[in-house]
Specification:
Elements (H helix, E strand, L loop, with lengths): L2 H16 L12 H13 L1 H4 L8 H25 L5 H4 L3 H18 L12 H18 L6 E6 L4 E5 L5 E6 L1 H8 L9 E3 L2 H9 L5
Parallel strand pairs: 1-3
Antiparallel strand pairs: 1-2, 3-4
Helix pairs in contact: 1-4, 1-6, 2-4, 7-8
Pfam family, one: MDMPI_N
Protein name: Mycothiol-dependent maleylpyruvate isomerase metal-binding domain-containing protein
GO molecular function: metal ion binding
Length: 210
């Protein structure tokens, strides 16, 4: 089983365990909302653009609500579990390339929104995959950072991003935690952050991610 499919299965199980009204780290979304989002991005290409494009966000939101009404919570979970769907199931390698990161992040969005949680120890090859993605995407992920960012991977590796010719903040953690940090989960990523107080505060509040 690929890591993408493993994360998909584990998140589906967690959805079932927690029910539709549990909190997530996605602001304003319950587990029901997040499940609908995941179905939308794979199965409703007409609305998926609204995930990233603001003028289309209203349509995406309406489709997301219609998916909730049509399938119900249990039905959405079964659609997620049966994936990958759409382009992710048709194009060879697409599921592994994109959904490994997508489902890991959203799995942690649910795990870390609960009262008690601890970071998982990820397999070495998954950590390596995430570090490659952090390095490759750091300029995109950190483009809205108002300060310079130096990412230090525990076990080796450094990547630079964020604004130039301004104070820098050093962020140290495993590849999985750095990935979460770079995708706007700063306050829930288990990392060490060092720098001037003002620079650190600005980075922690920045809208990081894609």
């Amino acid at each position: 089983m690929t890591h993408a499919r493993a994360e998909r299965a584990a998140l589906s199980d967690l959805f079932v365990q927690l029910g539709p009204d549990a909190p997530t780290l996605c602001e304003g979304w319950t587990t029901f909302d997040l499940a609908a989002h995941l179905v939308l991005r794979e199965r409703r290409t007409d609305a998926a653009g609204g995930i990233a494009i603001k003028p289309l966000a209203g349509y995406a939101a309406s489709v997301q609500e219609s998916l909730k009404a049509r399938h119900g919570y249990a039905g959405l979970i079964e659609l997620i579990r049966s994936g990958p769907a759409g382009i992710y199931g048709l194009v060879p390698g697409m599921d592994k390339a994109v959904n490994t990161m997508e489902f890991f992040i959203h799995h942690e969005d649910v795990r870390r929104a609960q009262r008690v949680w601890e970071p998982r120890e990820l397999p070495a090859d998954l950590e390596e995959t995430f570090w490659k993605q952090v390095r490759a995407g750091r300029r995109l992920f950190l483009r809205k950072s108002p300060v310079g960012v130096v990412l230090h991977r525990i076990g080796g590796g450094v990547a630079l991003g964020g604004a130039k010719n301004v104070p820098r903040v050093e962020v140290t953690g495993t590849a999985g935690e750095l990935l979460l940090f770079c995708f706007g989960r700063q306050s829930h990523a288990r990392v060490d952050v060092a720098g001037g107080d003002e620079a650190v505060a600005r980075l922690m509040d920045a809208p990081l991610g894609v």
